[in-house]
Amino acid sequence: MNRDLISRLAHADHPIAAPLGDEAVAALLDRALPRDGATMLDLGCGGGEWLLRALAVRPEARAEGVDLAEPALDHARREAGRRGVGDRLVLHRQDVSAFTAAEPFDLVLCVGSTHAFGGLLPALAAARRLLAPGGRVIVGDGYWECEPSPEAVEMLGDFADLATTVDALTTDGWIPLYGHLSTRQELDDYEWSWTGSLAAQALDQPDVLAVATEHRNGWLRGYRDCFGFLTLTLADGSRSPEAAPGRLDAPLP
């Protein structure tokens, strides 16, 4: 069984595919989406759940998603049709780092997919190239809540702490407008769903069951106590002087 299919099965019971609950996702989208018709792009869309939910609450909006995983894109197509938004969703199967578009987007998302660009700031650089003036970005990435073990770094990557992560964004010209720190319940629910969904669908497949077991052990023994997840709504202050901090006459998001 290939990696993409394993990921699709593992996210069957947690379609948002990131450690956030429904209320957090709704709040982030509500603050980021324009009130009228909008164009949206999800870089690393997976099963498309962020876009599907956004299209449901913005009937005039249109969206595009980019991902390499065909099982996830197939799921997104089926769900878009089932929810009646298929005519407003375009999906691209390609490397997100090579994606280009003829027109910029009002909202660019990259939640849990920054690794495809080589990290958080490179992902935001790609989002900036695709973002319309005055647009918003929703980005989600990990950070260390406390000093990680070498094993945790090897498993997940070399993140920074929360303050250093936010400082890096603001130094790069991004203005945080809203944020969500995943709770312990959200983080644990995501991991239990990931490992449990995969195990439940592979009870008679020892090799796949071993993947679930290895992931669960890595989480419980490696990074559970030190890993956090931050999701932010951002404005691009580097090219939007009217939105700079301290401007009391700046338009509200």
UniProtKB/TrEMBL annotation:
The keyword Secreted does not apply. It comes from the Bacteria. The keyword Methyltransferase applies. GO terms for biological process: methylation. One of its GO terms (molecular function) is methyltransferase activity. This is SAM-dependent methyltransferase. It comes from Amycolatopsis endophytica. CDD domains: AdoMet_MTases. Residues 41-135 form the Methyltransferase domain.
